[in-house]
Amino acid sequence: MSAADVRNAPAGVAIEKVTQRPEAAADTAEIERARADRAHRAAMQRFPKVVGDLVELVGAPLVAYITNISETRALRQWISGERVPHPSTQTKLQLALQVATYLVEEGEDGAVEAWFQGLNPSLDDHAPAELIRNTERTDLPSIGRKILAAAKEFANS
Hints:
By secondary structure, the protein is mainly α. The protein contains 9 helices and no strands. The longest helix has 31 residues, at 13-43.
């Protein structure tokens, strides 16, 4: 809003618009940071809880696909603590949970499973689940940033 707009606006209106704008931006940024922080903390839980929460959010078949296992029995064993998967599998599941939690926080809980499976133009037309599954552990941080950015873009659209 320009200085002329402020001078020509009815009393109180211009001041209200000017003072609300910075607060709204600050509130939005703070809410975004809080959501991202909760998503990060969810992914850093004890591993059996990570698997259980992810299965609850996206379903056992999708979690099995991401981890490249053929049967969901292994998931139950990971949840119970009976078995522990390879560290790269743990990292992939932590990333998937972080993204899924972020989408749920944004109110997209009904679309989380579909989002992971759908081709995503922000990810060169790859599905997020496919990228997580096929990425080596050393490349997961950079792929993870891209996937999280695509999730934020989806949630804000």
